[in-house]
Amino acid sequence: MVSSNEIIARRIRDALDLDAIEVVDWAAAVPQLADGAARAGVIVLVGGRASDERRALIRAVCQRFPSVPAIVVASLSSTGVHKALEAGAAGLVLDSEIETALAPTIHAVGAGQIVVPNRFRRHAIRPALSHREKQTLALVAAGYTNRQIAAHLFLAESTVKTHLTSVFGKLGVGSRSEAAELVLDPDMKLGISMPGLPETGTENGNGNGSHVL
User: What is the pTM of this model?
Assistant: First the structure.
C-alpha cells in the first residue's frame, strides 16, 4: 500500500483485516516500497485530489512493478476515472467506499478484471466522437466562440451548441475549459489535431470555465 495519509491507511488496514487480506508493506511513496512488493497480489495507491498527481503515482508504480495490478483509492471525477485507467490503474475505489468496496475490488482485480465504481461505468470506455464533433472540439480548444465555430464550419450556432452538448456528455465534462484541457492532453488520445489554428488556449470568447454552451 502507498499512502501518505495515515487515517486512510488505517481505514484500509481495518477494512482488509475483516476480509483476511494482509497488507505486507506500507510506504508513503512508491520509491519507499520494498522490492518484495513485486510478489504482492495488488498494490493499493491512495491518490491525491489532483488527477495529474494521481496519474503520476499510477505510472510510477506500474513502471516499478509492471506485473502487479494497481488499485487507486481516491475522490474521483468522471474525467479522473478515464485518466486513471489510461495511466494503468486496474481498479478504482472511492475513498468514501473503502469499507464496502475495496476488498471486493482486490478480489476482482486479482482475477484479472478491471473495476470501476458503478456510477462511472460509462466513463470507463469513452464513446467515440464524430468527425464534426472533433472539428467543433478542436475549435473550442483553440479559443473560438460558438459564433466563430459556426462561421468556420458553415453551421448554425444552434447546431454548434448541439455538437457541444453531445461532446460534453461523451467526455464527462461540464465546461469548455475542461473539454479543452482534455484535447490538449496527449495522454487522453482523443485523436484531435488542430492544424493551422492559432494557439490561443481557452481565454478567448467563451473559453473560460463557465458552463455556457
Answer: 0.66
